[in-house]
Amino acid sequence: MAFLAAGVLPVLLWLFAAAPCIGAVTSAICTGDCNASAAVTVDEVIAMVNIALGDASLTACPAGDADANGQISIDEIMAAARNALNGCFAAPPSEPACPQRNPLRNVYFGDLHVHTRNSFDAYLWDTRTTPLQAYQFARGEPLALAPLDANGNGTRTVRLARPLDFAAVTDHSEFLGEVESCSTPGGPTYDSPNCQLFRGTTGTAFASFGIKVTSPRPLRFPDVCGTGNRVCLSAAGDVWERIQGAAAAAYEQCTFTAFVAYEYSRSPSGSTLHRNVIFRNDRVPFPISAFEEPTPQGLWRELKTACLDAGTGCDVLAIPHNSNESNGHMFFVEYPGAQTVDDQRTQAQFRAAMEPLVEIYQHKGNSECMNGLSGVVGAPDEQCEFEKRRQGTVSDCGDQTGHLGAADEAEVRLGEFLPDQRRDGQVVLPVLVVVHPAQQQRAFPSGLAAGPNHL
């Protein structure tokens, strides 16, 4: 199903330059600070507008050109205006290098796809794990899981054989406020019809909530979220603060990195086009969901505006969800609105910058390969049957795109699998390798079914 949470804790293999960190180093220049005074004035914002209109030279305010492309954009003007209102970002003192820092890079193990009680699907399947408990589990502490007892406490205890080096709680940005509102007695919409449905039959609630993000223009539940969605947005803000607090509490320099993160969960026509959004530090904007930005392109633009160009030191990347449920849409070659080859090139470069990695394995199977499909993707491979989501004979729709990839009966498309991307030259993303090492099986002797479901 499209929204089954991460299930068994996968162990992700990622090569880091030194200590666990991500992304490029953010510039310390404050966008719009033309005279390097550590503040942005109204006159400096006006100067940037004049440069953008062609009435002044860029030499009048080089600091306005945050991306160093020789132009002043509306996003850069807006970033300067925010800096004028809120002040320039002051970089915190740099931390000393870790003793294990290696200029030739080390290998670290972690998990960048984790769900807790804040995700609607996880909650429906009796996950009551908090973000802090999820980080503690990643650090090697025991965790109680469903089935729940009469008091709502987990009755199974699991523990990793080897603590991880890093982790990110990636609860669905959609429904953060709805889950909080519907699971908190006494809240303003706790007794609303859809909140009562949420606390009712699991399958019915899952279908009612999950189908929301499959429509062309997703909308929230008015009875749950209130006028202007204020109830849900306010509740989501409280949840987001707790998520950030949990990451801060779990972080330990040179020992464990806890990333602030969330999962953008757009699923048009039932095709999973989710992205895990991972922030480099604690300077993060409010989560973007399919309700605000129903397309991946909109997600990337908003991340650029609210994070990369905000002048706060924010840095971010998005990791496409395992593409085996995408019906070929995840890496379909398209350039919305592009008029020229240069426009296409610009869009491709923007996506490559925002999504430099891709998830291959997680508990819903993998998008590495699949025996029996047409072409190079389906060439016999004795290693290709490992933890496949779909077993036995499948319907092959070749190079066509489809829908309902989250359903087991859906057709399989070549473009869902990584070898096809390399064949067609469609994707130039470095690969995020995800493995399930032997120590995980020792931690969970019964295999995948014994993992921390919907963590």
List the helices and strands and how they pair.
Elements lengths: L10 E6 L25 H12 L20 H13 L19 E9 L5 H5 L6 H8 L4 E6 L5 E5 L7 E4 L6 H7 L10 H6 L3 H9 L11 H4 L4 H21 L6 E8 L10 E5 L16 H13 L7 E5 L20 H14 L6 E2 L2 E2 L51 H7 L8 E3 L2 H6 L12
Parallel strand pairs: 2-5, 5-6
Antiparallel strand pairs: 1-2, 1-11, 3-4, 6-7, 7-8, 9-10
Structure class: alpha+beta
Please give the radius of gyration in angstroms: 23 Å
Number of helices: 13
- Oligomeric organization of the protein chains: single chain
How widely separated are the two ends? Answer: 16 Å
Strand order of the largest sheet: 8-7-6-5-2-1-11
Describe this structure in words.
This protein is of the alpha+beta class. It has two domains: 88 residues, Type 1 dockerin domain (Orthogonal Bundle), CATH 1.10.1330; 344 residues, no CATH class. 27% of the residues lie in helices and 12% in strands. It has 13 helices and eleven strands. The strands form three sheets. The chain has a seven-stranded mixed β-sheet, with helices on one face. A two-stranded antiparallel ribbon has the order 3-4. Strands 9-10 form a two-stranded antiparallel ribbon. Helix 4 runs parallel beside helix 9. The longest helix is centred in the middle third of the chain and has 21 residues.
